[in-house]
């Protein structure tokens, strides 16, 4: 297998032939973070009628500057009657504009005396009016297929009276932690053992990327157990993810097991951290009898970075969500110096948004075993292979605070 594949090559290989999962119905109260399987068209104009943007008085603009009798009181949720010229109506924010009125004056600008009110001069037509259909026109596309249902999108759906939408099924993930040394929190720690950081970290990221982790297992460092558990995982999941056991030592059984059961598409990337990352396919329950396999290196930082670079776009492809295909990128000034070798380095940085631009501060220890370099990281600064960076140089940063 060729040496050190570029990240972009690996990403194309991973996404090649991946189609969105089936659509299913979801109640909007339970659809937060889901992805629309089809476009939603507006049924209603929003707002559905001309209404007032202020508490005040509705009038015809030609009657500005005069004392006007106050004829009706229009609260939000109540209907308005026609307004004769030379009169005004008391109106409240959200109240329906009466036929005959074409503007609203806020009450702070009005002098009231008994049943009449004096309007200021020169009130423009349309002032403080929210016209029917200003936000949404009935029949227009409200949300495109592939939209992720965030707070604003859910509010927009509710504004149409919609209670259910068609969304993509959540990808089902099996997450296997390999290594005889790995112990779950809650168990006593023996000599040479460490607690499993990768499982909760990756479960959290996968849920954030819209997936369900349906199976987790600890895989001992032996070939038969690795094969057996990989085979079992491929039957229940759309994607099987392992951590550890993909490097070159004789205790690394994952690649061999993938080759024995299915096929290895790619191994060893020009990626730091994450060089031994492996991609492949297993026979299983996925589309056309194939389940995708992603073997993340065991070092927690390699898993963390690998999840953002590979698992997020893969979940995006399964969810039919183009926005998840790449991370938002921004340019920042490096507050650090570094040099890279043959691998592209994804340095964990915090970003300072100052008056004179954005500054990227790298965590001091960028070793792939140092998970504290991911805690509080805002972005990954991408340093190309064989490059050097001096303080003040522009660096491209991938924003990690995105959904
Ligand atoms: N001779 C070579 N050795 C190594 C190479 C190499 O090219 N030649 N590559 C190194 C690189 S780079 C990486 S990255 C690691 C990845 O190796 P594996 O994917 O086989 O991972 P393991 O050896 O199983 O584990 C690595 C490290 O991470 C710890 N680990 C594993 N799982 C977890 C977990 N769930 N939670 C917390 N920590 C975990 C594990 O104990 C090891 O310390 O290989 C290098 N070696
Ligand atoms: O590629 Mo490894 O994650 O550098 O240590």
UniProtKB/TrEMBL annotation:
PROSITE patterns: MOCF_BIOSYNTHESIS_2. Keywords: Magnesium, Metal-binding, Molybdenum, Molybdenum cofactor biosynthesis, Transferase. Pathway: Cofactor biosynthesis; molybdopterin biosynthesis. Transmembrane segments: none annotated. Its EC number is 2.10.1.1. It catalyses: adenylyl-molybdopterin + molybdate = Mo-molybdopterin + AMP + H(+). It is an enzyme of class 2 (transferase). The keyword NADP does not apply. InterPro entries: MoaB/Mog-like_dom_sf, MoaB/Mog_dom, MoCF_biosynth_CS, MoeA-like, MoeA_C_domain_IV, MoeA_C_domain_IV_sf, MoeA_linker/N, MoeA_linker/N_sf. Its cofactor is Mg(2+). NCBIfam families: Glp_gephyrin, molyb_syn. Belongs to the MoeA family. This is Molybdopterin molybdenumtransferase. It comes from Halomonas halophila. The lineage of its organism: Bacteria, Pseudomonadati, Pseudomonadota, Gammaproteobacteria, Oceanospirillales. The gene is moeA.
């Amino acid at each position: 297998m060729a040496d050190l594949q570029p990240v972009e090559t690996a990403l194309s290989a991973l996404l090649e032939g991946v189609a969105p999962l089936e659509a299913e119905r979801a109640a909007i109260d339970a659809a937060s973070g889901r992805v629309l399987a089809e476009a939603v068209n507006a049924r209603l104009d929003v707002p559905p009628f001309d209404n007032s943007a202020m508490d005040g008085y509705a009038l015809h603009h030609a009657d500005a500057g005069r004392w006007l009798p106050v004829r009706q009181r229009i609260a939000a949720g109540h209907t308005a009657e026609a307004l004769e010229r030379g009169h005004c109506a008391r109106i409240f924010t959200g109240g329906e504009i009466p036929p005959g009125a074409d503007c609203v004056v806020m009450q702070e600008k009005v002098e009231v005396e008994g049943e009449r009110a004096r309007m200021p001069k020169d009130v423009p037509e349309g002032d403080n009016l929210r016209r029917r259909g200003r936000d949404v026109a009935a029949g227009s596309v409200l949300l495109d297929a592939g939209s992720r249902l965030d707070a604003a999108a859910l509010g927009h759906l509710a504004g149409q009276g919609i209670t259910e939408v068609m969304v993509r099924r959540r990808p089902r993930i099996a997450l296997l932690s390999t290594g005889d040394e790995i112990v779950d929190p809650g168990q006593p720690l023996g000599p040479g053992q460490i607690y499993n950081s990768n499982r909760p970290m990756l479960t959290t990221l996968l849920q954030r990327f819209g997936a369900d982790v349906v199976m987790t297992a600890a895989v001992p460092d032996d070939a038969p157990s690795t094969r057996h558990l990989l085979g079992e995982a491929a039957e229940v999941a759309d994607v099987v993810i392992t951590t550890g056991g993909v490097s070159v030592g004789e205790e690394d059984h994952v690649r061999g097991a993938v080759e024995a059961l299915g096929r290895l598409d790619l191994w060893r990337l020009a990626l730091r951290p994450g060089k031994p990352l492996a991609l492949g396919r297993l026979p299983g329950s996925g589309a056309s009898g194939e389940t995708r396999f992603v073997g993340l290196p065991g070092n927690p930082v390699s898993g963390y970075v690998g999840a953002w670079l590979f698992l997020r776009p893969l979940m995006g492809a399964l969810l039919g969500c183009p926005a998840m295909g790449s991370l938002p990128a921004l340019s920042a000034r490096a507050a650090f110096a570094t040099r890279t070798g043959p691998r592209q380095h994804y340095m964990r940085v915090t970003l300072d948004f100052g008056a004179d631009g954005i500054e990227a501060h790298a965590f001091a220890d960028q070793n792939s075993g140092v998970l504290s370099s991911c805690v509080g990281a805002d972005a990954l600064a991408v340093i190309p292979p064989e490059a050097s960076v001096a303080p003040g140089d522009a660096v491209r940063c991938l924003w990690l605070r995105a959904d």
